[in-house]
Amino acid sequence: MIFGRSQRGKPPVEPVTLKILVAGGFGVGKTTLVGAVSEIRPLRTEELLTEAGRPVDDVSGVEGKHTTTVAMDFGRITLREDLVLYLFGTPGQERFWFMWDELSEGALGAVVLADTRRLEDCFAAVDYFERRSIPFVIGVNCFEGSARYPVETVRRALDLDADVPLVMCDARDRESVKEILIGVVQHAMAQASDRRRAVTT
């Protein structure tokens, strides 16, 4: 379809739109992930880190980071003609968590990015989605120079339920990110199917 007109007489397809959140700690790669896969120029709300924010923005482990998301990142990816994903990257710092309720409204599921150098930074996001029964997948962003651990070791450290998918990823790599997003959709669909079966039995 071009500018709302159907091609070759075909009726226009009204795509199903799905909303996925990208969450995790400060500096874990949320903005990078959205930018790696978005087919449009991502909307970013990044501001330079300042001396005023130094007491509340812990940059240990990410000393090279000079900007921070203050509202959200937004991107879009078309999986099929009739299926479009909207990606919303959440701000990582605690002082912006009040925005999460608004951003999570109507979300199909979420990606929680984790960094093994600062694994505790993703605990808040895991807890948030667990308490609200929003399906989520853990993506361990494999930064250069960081130690690599077996999947089960990271799973135990995060104390995840057995059905929560956990995958190693590179937030800079489009194909790696696409695999995570497909995993979120599949996980959400499986949970919805389980809930339907529980209701009918």
From TrEMBL:
Question: What Gene3D superfamilies does the annotation carry?
Answer: P-loop containing nucleotide triphosphate hydrolases
Keyword list (alphabetical) reads:
GTP-binding, Hydrolase, Nucleotide-binding
Q: Which Pfam families match?
A: ATP_bind_1 (PF03029)
Q: Which residues cross the membrane?
A: none
* Record-linked InterPro entries: Gliding_Motility_GTPase, Gpn, P-loop_NTPase
> What SUPFAM superfamilies does the entry give?
P-loop containing nucleoside triphosphate hydrolases
Q: Which family does it belong to?
A: Belongs to the GPN-loop GTPase family.
> What is the protein named?
GTP-binding protein
Supply the source organism for this entry: Streptomyces salinarius
Biological classification of the source? Bacteria, Bacillati, Actinomycetota, Actinomycetes, Kitasatosporales
